[in-house]
């Protein structure tokens, strides 16, 4: 066994240093998750809504629902 002195652990400022590292990591992960959601979900959803409303006829849909008896006030 060697009788050399062990280095003392650094305790002063340990929380601040670890917190700074974790905050940077959390910031990078949140930016990445936001960008992923925007491109994977948001843009696809916008495109699907645009495609749906491009050739949607609300009056035709209303007439079909009226004929089916869904509305009580519109005969």
Automatic annotation (TrEMBL):
Mode of membrane association: Single-pass membrane protein
InterPro entries: Cytochrome_c_oxidase_VIc (IPR051389), Cytochrome_c_oxidase_VIc/VIIs (IPR034884), Cytochrome_c_oxidase_VIc_sf (IPR037169)
Keyword Repeat among UniProt keywords: no
UniProt subcellular location: Mitochondrion inner membrane
Transmembrane segment boundaries: 21-39
Pathway: Energy metabolism; oxidative phosphorylation
UniProt keyword annotations, A-Z: Membrane, Mitochondrion, Mitochondrion inner membrane, Transmembrane, Transmembrane helix
Main location: mitochondrion
Family annotation (Pfam families): COX6C (PF02937)
Function: Component of the cytochrome c oxidase, the last enzyme in the mitochondrial electron transport chain which drives oxidative phosphorylation. The respiratory chain contains 3 multisubunit complexes succinate dehydrogenase (complex II, CII), ubiquinol-cytochrome c oxidoreductase (cytochrome b-c1 complex, complex III, CIII) and cytochrome c oxidase (complex IV, CIV), that cooperate to transfer electrons derived from NADH and succinate to molecular oxygen, creating an electrochemical gradient over the inner membrane that drives transmembrane transport and the ATP synthase.
Subunit structure: Component of the cytochrome c oxidase (complex IV, CIV), a multisubunit enzyme composed of 14 subunits. The complex is composed of a catalytic core of 3 subunits MT-CO1, MT-CO2 and MT-CO3, encoded in the mitochondrial DNA, and 11 supernumerary subunits COX4I, COX5A, COX5B, COX6A, COX6B, COX6C, COX7A, COX7B, COX7C, COX8 and NDUFA4, which are encoded in the nuclear genome.
Family: Belongs to the cytochrome c oxidase subunit 6c family.
Name of the protein: Cytochrome c oxidase subunit 6C
Species this protein is from: Echinops telfairi (Lesser hedgehog tenrec)
């Amino acid at each position: 066994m060697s009788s050399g002195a062990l280095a003392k652990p650094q305790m002063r400022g340990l929380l601040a240093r670890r917190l700074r590292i974790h905050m940077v990591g959390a910031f990078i992960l949140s930016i990445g998750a936001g960008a992923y959601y925007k491109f994977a979900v948001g843009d696809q959803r916008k495109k699907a809504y645009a495609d749906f409303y491009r050739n949607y006829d609300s009056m035709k849909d209303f007439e079909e629902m009226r004929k089916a008896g869904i509305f009580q006030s519109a005969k």
